[in-house]
Design goal:
Radius of gyration: 19 Å
Largest sheet: 6 strands, mixed
Distance between the termini: 33 Å
Bound molecules: NADPH dihydro-nicotinamide-adenine-dinucleotide phosphate
Number of strands: 12
Structural class: alpha/beta
């Protein structure tokens, strides 16, 4: 048992994977808690998902994080699913049991909420939230956002029908929830904007109308980068009172996965600071 634990193997699968900061984060967690484990990034093409994951399990891996574009594959692969994975219809954390069972969980939503409410100390309850995007990341955070008790949640997506489908999947909700097209935004102020689009991959950001932020409103970009994103620059220029990128979410979702696997929760503040320093130095 101890011998197995001392060689515990974990990793992240995705495609592509070379940009990932997850090995950096998990190495910090392991050293902080004195856990003997390895964590590596492994490129897995979608068409080879099943055979590669089976072979990693046979090689002794105890768990895997899963990123784009494999979260839906992991959802279909898992033999048991947590409630939050079922709601998200996506899995970012696989755990391999000794009995052959494969458990699937999704820690993205709790990661975002912990970063917003604990690290940044931003209010979610009672706030008018505008989320841009209706893809996998948006779906993963819908339930925890709604559970946090916002005054209203608006989903604005480039393809409006996709936003409508997302909103319908979470109806009925405790607060008004609606979907609009990105091009329909304007004239209405919000307290918290969350960018869950992948527009930054093309170097851009959804164009925001002049009136979008209530006084003191906040803007959060799930994307993270060494320099401020186009979305956050735009938000600051339009009057956002505070802005943050998604590095804290990344560390928090990783901490939740670590706790699932190792039964012990790492402290995250020092790791977010280390990641920020490394991003600044661009040496992660
Ligand atoms: P998906 O591919 O599932 O969804 C992409 C979304 O972005 C869709 O809503 C799409 O709209 C929209 N979009 C893409 N390009 C543009 C554009 N040029 N203008 C406007 N909207 C656009 O991606 P994910 O949901 O998985 O990821 C979204 C972002 O969240 C990524 O930047 C990712 O890195 C980040 N993320 C961060 C995490 C963290 O821990 N910090 C965790 C998970 C994700 P349409 O439907 O019209 O195509």
């Amino acid at each position: 048992m101890t011998a197995d634990r001392s060689a515990a193997r974990y990793g992240l699968i995705g495609h592509p994977i070379s940009h990932s900061r997850s090995p950096f984060i998990h190495r910090h967690f392991a050293s902080q808690l004195g856990q003997e484990m390895t964590y590596e990034a492994i490129d897995v093409a979608p068409e080879h998902f099943r055979e590669r994951v089976e072979s990693l399990r046979e090689d002794g891996f105890l768990g895997l994080n899963v990123t784009v574009p494999l979260k839906e594959h992991a959802f279909a692969f898992a033999s048991s699913l947590s409630a939050r994975a079922l709601r998200a219809e996506a899995v970012n954390t696989l755990s391999f049991g000794r009995d052959g069972l494969v458990s699937g969980d999704n820690t993205d939503g709790i990661g975002l909420l912990r970063d917003l409410t604990r690290n940044l100390e931003w209010k979610v309850a009672g706030q008018r939230i505008l989320m841009l995007g209706a893809g996998g990341a948006a779906r993963g955070v819908m339930q925890p956002l709604l559970e946090a008790g916002p005054a209203q949640l608006t989903v604005a997506n480039r393809t409006c029908s996709r936003g409508e489908e997302l909103v319908a999947a979470f109806a009925p909700a405790r607060c008004p929830v609606r979907a609009v097209g990105l091009d329909e935004l304007g004239g209405e102020a919000h307290d918290l904007l969350i960018n869950a689009t992948s527009a930054a991959l093309g170097g851009g950001a959804p164009r925001l109308p002049a009136v979008i932020f209530a006084p003191g409103a906040r803007a959060y970009d799930m994307m993270y980068a060494p320099t401020q994103s186009a979305f956050l620059k735009q938000a600051a220029a339009l009057g956002a009172g505070a802005v943050s990128d998604g590095r804290g979410m990344l560390v928090e979702q990783a901490a939740e996965s670590f706790a699932i696997w190792r039964g012990v929760r790492p402290a995250t503040a020092s790791v977010i600071a280390a990641l920020s320093a490394a991003l600044t130095a661009e040496d992660v």
